[in-house]
Design brief:
By secondary structure, the protein is an alpha/beta fold. Helix content is 24%, strand content 26%. It has a nine-stranded mixed sheet with strand order 13-12-11-14-15-19-16-17-18, with helices on both faces. A four-stranded antiparallel sheet has the order 4-3-8-7, with no helix packed on it. The chain has a two-stranded parallel sheet with strand order 1-2. About 14% of the residues have low confidence.
């Protein structure tokens, strides 16, 4: 049977390792390490001895090589999860379980989009906060099928396309160092099979969006936006202006108070966004834990009684807040009058389950249709 390289996008029973591949070395089932991209003049150093890459290139997956210390090391192709965890990092990555959940929440179905005028445009997804490149790689894999068979530019780092893709991941970071490192992380996996799906940009995300809208015209062009930034609320307004109707805005933050800041900003600015849900992610949390984050008018204010009652803005199933939240919740799409703006409290607490430390929070909004969209 004819073998292929592990970086090729084909299905076969035999994989031959080629120049540029990364492989995992195992000894008696234990992971010894992940090689750097293979080259005929390079080597990998491990606690069990050195391995010259020229002895690995040309072998098949699960073949054995012998280190300089005489130890037998078996060759394995890294899964995406293994690759993310084992690659060198400058910043903490979004770990694979969380990245997979984030991608699933977006419910991506990549392909070309047709506007009301008949213009065909690709699906464009914006990730703000490239970081390690973990989420970038998961997003690139999710849209990869849409671009199979299309000849794209060999390097997708702010370069023009040779052909129009059906799906693009724009990833923006203010640090050129992080952006370059993430581009290498994406490019080194399976010899860059997903790199052509990604555009890397070094910029402030709001400034980048404004530049794009100035160049393209004042029309939405993004199918989805992901904000993984310390002050996401500062960029929500600009991101919403570039988001297609029914497009998703996803915010990932380590603290529920940061999510609250975004919720409050959206309400204060009356942005056309509908909160779909808030999910806590973290260790040993399969599928995440759903949080209840919404505005509610305290019952004391509704009945006109003593308004000096204290209501917790972020409580764990406090019965008073529970009753008040049920008494007057702002329904989807409902808008209160401006003079009532200060009479609402924000409710945020786990809907169910036990408390778990660590992890982060993912909030998802959908963009509503406005009169300007008609």
């Amino acid at each position: 049977m004819q073998g292929t390289n592990i970086g090729e996008d084909v299905t076969t029973l035999v994989y031959r390792i080629a120049d540029g591949d990364c492989v995992i070395l195992r000894h008696k089932g234990d992971v010894i390490g992940l090689t750097s991209p293979l080259g005929m003049q390079t080597r990998t150093t491990t606690r069990l001895g050195n391995v010259d890459h020229k002895h690995i290139i040309g072998k098949k997956i699960r073949d054995v090589v012998v280190s300089s210390k005489g130890k037998e090391l078996r060759l394995h192709a890294p899964t995406l999860d293994e690759y993310i965890v084992m690659t060198p990092r400058l910043v903490t990555p979004i770990y694979p379980a969380d990245a997979n959940l984030i991608v699933s929440l977006l419910d991506l179905h990549p392909g070309s989009l047709e506007s009301s005028s008949g213009t065909i445009s690709p699906m464009e997804v914006l990730e703000a906060g490239t970081g390690h490149g973990s989420l970038t790689l998961h997003l690139a894999r999710a849209v990869h099928a849409a671009n199979v068979g299309i000849r794209l530019a060999a390097a997708r780092v702010d370069q023009s396309l040779q052909a129009m893709p059906r799906a693009i991941i724009h990833t923006v970071d203010v640090s050129s160092r992080y952006s370059q490192h993430a581009a290498k992380i994406v490019g080194d996996f399976r010899r860059g099979m997903y790199l052509r799906n990604v555009d890397f940009h070094v910029s402030n995300v709001s400034e980048w969006i404004e530049q794009q809208m100035h160049a393209r015209g004042p029309r939405p062009f993004l199918s989805h936006v992901l904000l993984d930034l310390p002050s996401s609320h500062n960029h929500v307004g600009t991101a919403t202006s570039a988001l297609h109707v029914d497009g998703k805005l996803l915010v990932f933050n380590p603290s529920i108070t940061q999510i609250n800041s975004v919720v409050q900003y959206i309400k204060a600015k009356r942005l056309p966004l509908q909160l779909e849900g808030v999910v806590e992610v973290g260790p040993s949390m399969t599928g995440g834990r759903i949080w209840d984050v919404r505005f509610a008018k305290p019952r004391a204010l509704i009945k006109g009684v003593d308004q000096n009652v204290t209501f917790a803005k972020c409580a764990n199933a406090d019965q008073a807040v529970e009753d008040d939240a049920k008494a007057s919740c702002l329904n989807d799409g409902e808008e209160e009058q401006p003079h009532d703006q200060q009479s609402f409290e924000i409710v945020c607490r786990p809907k169910a389950g036990t408390r778990i430390s660590g992890g982060g929070f993912v909030a998802l909004w959908s963009r509503n249709r406005t009169r300007q969209d008609d």
